[in-house]
Structure formats: C-alpha cells, structure tokens
Design goal:
The complex is a heterotrimer of chains A (269), B (259) and C (126). Chain A is α/β, with parallel strands linked by helices and 269 residues long. Chain A contains 9 helices and 13 strands. In chain A, the strands form 3 sheets. A 6-stranded mixed β-sheet of chain A has the order 6-7-8-3-9-10, sandwiched between helices. Chain A has a 4-stranded antiparallel β-sheet with strand order 2-1-4-5, with no helix packed on it. In chain A, helix 4 packs antiparallel against helix 5 and helix 5 (130-144) packs parallel to helix 6. Chain B is built from 9 helices and no strands. Chain C has 2 domains: 10-76, Arc Repressor Mutant, subunit A (Orthogonal Bundle), CATH 1.10.10.10; 78-125, no CATH class. Chain C is built from 5 helices and 3 strands, in the order E-H-H-H-E-E-H-H. A two-stranded antiparallel sheet of chain C has the order 2-3. In chain C, helix 1 crosses helix 3 (47-59). Classes of the chains: A alpha/beta (269), B mainly alpha (259), C mainly alpha (126). The interface between A and C is medium-sized, with 36 and 26 residues. Strand 11 of chain A pairs antiparallel with strand 1 of chain C, so a sheet runs across the interface.
C-alpha cells in the first residue's frame, strides 16, 4: 500500500529532515505516526501524498508514484490537514462539489457521520467553528472510502465528547482495503484506535511495531519498587511507571511511556 | 482512463466550480454590469460630441481594464498555502486544472465582457435618450470596430490585436502560477530555442537566400513576398510567445509544491 | 515489591468483558455476539484489536465462528469461563491473598464473612 524507498528530503536552506528513510505498510491498518515537535510528521505525510518532492528516493502508494499526482492516485487518497480554510458555501454545496471526484464515495455513510457529529447540513462552512469544520472534514474523509486516509492532528480542536465519537466513527467505518495514518501528539485520544505505532526521530523511523505485539512482549505497570528487569521507569505518585519484558500475559500499552523510553535511547525489538 | 485529459473528469471540475463559486460569480457579473452602465452613462452625459467611433476606446478600456487584472489572479489557490494544498490534492490531472484556469481566467472574459458591455451600452444609451430625447446618439455595435480598422487589413490587424491582448493576459496568468522546480530554466531554454528557430527561418529566407531580390523562391519559404513574410513573422512570433508563456505556466503548476 | 496497576492488553479487556456478560446471562449459549465492526464502532477500538479478541475467545472455545454469519457463544462457554477464572483465582489471586493475610496477621475471626460464604457455596452444591 505505502512504500517509501530510501527517501531523503530537506527544506530549502535547512539541514536534511529525512535521510534514507524507508517504510513499507500494508492495508487494513490504522497507523499512529508519532514524533517530537519538528521531527517531520507533517512533512512525511505531505511527501507520501505527493505534495512535496523528495530530494532522492521515491514514494509509491498503491503502485502510483505519488509525485506524479495522477488523477487515479489522487482519487484514492484523502488528506485532512491540521489547519485548513473552508469555502464560504453551504455544507450541501461542498458535498455536491466534491463527491464526483471520489468513485467509492458513500453518501449514506456521510449522512450518518454528519448526524453523529451533530453537524447542520444547512450551515455555511466558513461560519462554523474550527472544531465543527474539522469534524465535517473527518466525516467527509471517512465517507470517501479512499484507500488511504491521512489525518494530521485530527483531535486538535475537538471537544471531549467529540473525541470519543471520533474514535467510534473511525473504528466503525473502515473497510479491509483501507489504511489510515494519524499523526498526533494527543496519544491518549487515539490509544485504542491505532493498531500500529511508527515513531520518527532524527530523520529515521526509530520504532515500527503493532500494538498487539508490544502488549504481548512488554509489561507496562505501576510498581512500588523497581524490579531488576526494568527497561525504563518514570516516577509516579504511587511509585514508578515502568516497562519491563512481559511475563506471559498481555498488558495495556502506555504509549506515552513507550514514547519517552524510546526517546531516552531504550531499544525495543 | 486517460491520465492526461479526461472529458468526464473535466466535467466534474466544471460542476465543482459551479457549486463553489456560483454565488461569487453571479455577484461579480452583476457588479460589472452596474459598473459598466454607470461609467458609460457618465461618459455619454459629459461628452456632448460622442460619435460612433468614440465607443471604441471606451470598449477597449472597460474590457481590458477588467480582463487583464482578472488574468493576473489566475490559480487563486496559489495565493495561500492551505488552498494550494487542496488544489494539488483535487483528483484531476494537471492539464484539466490548467485548462480550467485558461478557460476561466483568459478566455471567458472574451465572451462575457463584450456581452456585458453591449447590454450596458444600450441600456445607458436608452437612459440618455430618455433624459434628453432631442440628442442624436449612435448605439454601440461590434461592426463599428471592424469599420474603423478597414476591411483590407482587417484579418491581419484583428489577429495582431487579439494575440497581443492574449499575450498580455497570458504573461500575467503565468505570473499567477508560483515557483516550482526548475520550470523557469526549462521555459527560458524553450523560449530561446523557439525564437532562435523562428528568426533563423525568416532570416534565411529574407537575407541569406535573398529570395525576394532575384525572385527565386526556395522550397523552405512558404511566402512569396516580403510584406506577407513580415506579417507572418509578427504573427508567428506572437503565437510562439503565447504558447511558450502557456507552457511556462503549465510547468509551474505541474511542479508546484507545498512550501 | 507491590504491583498497583497492571491493566491487561485491550483485546484481553474486551474478552474479559464479553466473558463477564456471558456469565451474567446477558449472552446465552447459542447467542450471536456483536460483529467486529459493531463492537469497534461502539467501543472506539481498532477492528484488528477486536478480531484478536475473537481469536482469543475462539481459541478458548468460548465463541465459535460460523462462516459468513458471525461469532456465537458456545454451549459450554459459561463452564469454560468459570474454569478459567477458577484457575486464575487459585494461581494468582489466592497466593496474593494468603500473602496479605500473613503480612497483616489476619485472624480466623476477621475472616468470618469468607467462611460464611464458603459454607453457603457448599450448601448450594448439595
């Protein structure tokens, strides 16, 4: 589905952001793309979507070279950016204007999603609040049924009930041949939603594993004293938040702890 | 499906434009109509000696005054990063997006502005005659322009004028497309090569082959006298400038990136 | 060392929840369990995670997959779940409990409610 081969990229007059980065992902996943501020999450998403051209290497999405921006490539991908402007038209007009470009569009699904997000179809999009605009774009993205849906910081600007609804809608409306990439700093918002974590740092993919694998290989828990096999620990009001090799049972992955562990040089493989 | 240009996808693009800009477009056309009518009315009132040929500068001024800045705002999405993003990801080929902009930004004023001018001028004339019924006023007609040029040179001068206006529009249109990856160098090379080729061709006919001095016409010449050759040269250069300007704009759009 | 919190993996949590609902009688043997998509939509949890839950439950013979129809509660699911829970109790909870009894010096009198319950259980079995 997504095939990034030896990608290098640098913005003009800046140090290289990615050097020889490779990545290969199949369909039917919700990928969480994590990284520190400035690690290049959005840039990587833009390179995958063909909005930027790599200095070297290439990006293939469904066998399409993304920099070519062919129409049949573009109709298989929907990207909801973090910040965007909506045209000053009624939601209905926007829907009519863009539906024809997406051959797999599911209008019934869109109506369901709009209803669940409590959006008003009669309203002018430019006059909606940032959170409402975002909910509409997310609903539209899911309804396109595009093979690749890219969500850049989707929960930024959503209120607390909307975040729960967001998870339910994304989890419930995907089909097997679809892939979703969510880039986020709000790990808690998507913790149960994603089934794969990709972490980028220093221009490289430093971690790439499925949540189920991590939950079976490592034990995340709160303890009073540090056991000998502790891989990484953080102070906690009750003692320590630790990650250690698993003892046979699965445990709920604490993505924030994992993130900090990796950034402190702990390797998980 | 055709990856370069598909009529079906282009139709979707037109439909999209309709849904997104029907309100703005109709407001613009109505304002233009009101604006034209008022300006023409004011001119007719202040100029007691308004003759049939006085329509021509007014016509050119009002049409060009709108068409030229309108072309300069081609690819409105490129003015802002977030809109550029949406433009690039819209599932259409570059050619389709480009042709749409040529149609809307360069060609549509050729149809719409003369039409609005025609209606406005007639409305204004009627109003003037209503205020001062004794006044003689010849209404505006497109034939006035043709009469003014004269029938003998008409095809040449009409082509010349149309091409010059198109070139001005296109250069501004190209300016509307923002920097991409090396299109500037590519286009300059193309322009340079094309112009050199054209000049070499005519130079070789007129000077080097000395065709018109001794009456010999070599097989490479398609014209048989100096005057028509010069005219063709002018038109040829203009067509080339037009095409290269469009090609330049096209490459800029094709290689456009989010920056 | 004391462990205060060790949540099981999410797929395990969902499996436990389904088991709980089978024990409480909400899902009876032969009943169809919600589809993967529906559970995902209800819980806001990844469909692959839910799939994993069902594979786990199927592996323990608590649900069975009828191709193209969905997952159904097996006839002996309640018994299977009780057996599994009993094993978990004797293996993990009881030793920890005994350790606490030892640590705090709990006496027979203080555990009176426990013995009463044990007696009730034995009476029920007869």
């Amino acid at each position: 589905m997504i095939n990034v081969k030896n990608l290098s990229f640098a913005y003009k007059k800046q140090a290289p952001l990615f050097q020889d980065l490779s990545l290969s992902e199949g369909t039917g996943q919700i990928i969480g793309l994590l990284g520190k501020n400035g690690a290049g999450k959005t840039t990587l998403l833009q390179l995958i979507s063909g909005l930027l051209t790599p200095a070297s290497g290439e990006v293939l999405v469904n066998e399409f070279k993304s920099t070519k921006r062919e129409a049949s490539f573009l109709e298989s991908i929907y990207f909801v950016p973090e910040e965007f402007t909506m045209p000053s038209v009624k939601m209905w007009d926007f829907i009519e204007a863009f539906i024809p470009f997406y051959p797999r569009f599911d209008k019934q699904l869109l109506n369901d999603l709009i209803e669940k997000f409590e959006l008003d179809q009669q309203k002018n999009l430019a006059k909606m609040s940032h959170g409402q605009k975002k909910k509409f774009r997310i609903a539209f993205a899911l309804a396109t049924r595009c093979q690749l849906i890219v969500l850049d910081e989707p929960t930024n600007g959503l209120d607390i009930p909307s975040k729960t609804i967001f998870r339910q809608l994304v989890a419930g409306s995907l089909q097997e041949d679809q892939t979703v990439i969510i880039s986020t700093h709000q790990v808690k918002d998507v913790e149960t939603l994603i089934d794969k974590i990709i972490l980028i740092d220093n221009g490289q993919v430093v971690f790439n594993q499925s949540i189920i694998d991590i939950s079976e290989k490592y034990d995340f828990k709160i303890v009073s004293h540090l056991p000998n096999n502790t891989l990484y620990s953080e102070l906690n009001p009750m003692g320590y938040n630790i990650v250690a090799p698993a003892n046979g049972d699965s445990s709920e992955v604490d993505i924030e702890l994992l993130f900090n562990a990796i950034n402190n040089g702990i390797t998980f493989n | 499906m055709n990856t370069i240009f598909s009529i079906k996808r282009f139709g979707k693009l037109i439909k999209q434009q309709y849904h997104l800009s029907k309100k703005n477009a109709s407001l613009t056309l109505i304002s233009l109509f009101i604006g034209y009518t008022l300006i023409i009315l004011f001119t007719l009132m202040s100029d007691r000696h308004f003759t049939a040929s006085s329509w021509i500068p007014l016509f050119i001024l009002l049409c060009a005054g709108v068409a030229i800045p309108f072309a300069a705002y081609a690819f409105p999405a490129f003015r802002r990063k977030d809109l550029t993003f949406e433009f690039l990801l819209l599932p259409c080929s570059v050619t389709e997006k480009f042709v749409l902009n040529i149609l809307v930004r360069i060609l549509s004023p050729w149809l719409l502005l003369p039409f609005i001018f025609y209606v406005s001028s007639h409305l204004a004339s009627e109003l003037v005659l209503w205020f001062s019924p004794d006044r003689f006023l010849e209404p505006f007609a497109f034939t006035t322009i043709i009469k003014e040029i004269g029938t003998k040179e008409l095809p040449f001068f009409l082509t010349l004028i149309i091409l010059i206006i198109l070139i001005i529009q296109s250069v501004l249109f190209a300016g509307g497309a923002v920097f991409g990856k090396k299109p500037l160098i590519k286009t300059l090379v193309v322009i340079g090569a094309c112009t050199a080729l054209v000049f070499f061709y005519f130079f070789s006919i007129i000077e080097w082959a000395e065709v018109f001095k001794n009456g010999r016409v070599p097989w490479i010449a398609i014209f048989d006298n100096k005057e028509s050759t010069l005219k063709a040269l002018v038109i040829g250069v203009e067509v080339f400038v037009l095409i290269t300007t469009w090609a330049y704009a096209f490459f800029r759009v094709k290689e456009k990136q989010i920056t | 060392m004391m462990e205060f919190k060790n949540n099981k993996g999410i797929f395990q949590q969902i499996a436990d929840n389904i088991c709980e609902r089978i024990l409480s009688g909400e899902f009876k043997p032969g009943d169809k369990v919600q589809s993967v998509r529906k559970l995902a939509a209800m819980l806001g949890v990844n469909q692959n995670t839910i799939m994993r839950t069902f594979i786990e439950l199927q592996h323990n013979n608590i649900v069975e997959n009828r191709r193209g129809v969905g997952y159904f509660v097996t006839d002996n699911a309640p018994k299977m779940i009780r057996d599994m829970r009993k094993e978990e109790f004797t293996q993990e909870i009881l030793p920890a409990f005994i350790q606490q009894v030892k640590l705090l010096g709990i006496t027979r009198e203080e555990l009176e409610p426990l013995f009463n319950q044990l007696k009730e259980n034995e009476d029920e079995d007869k």
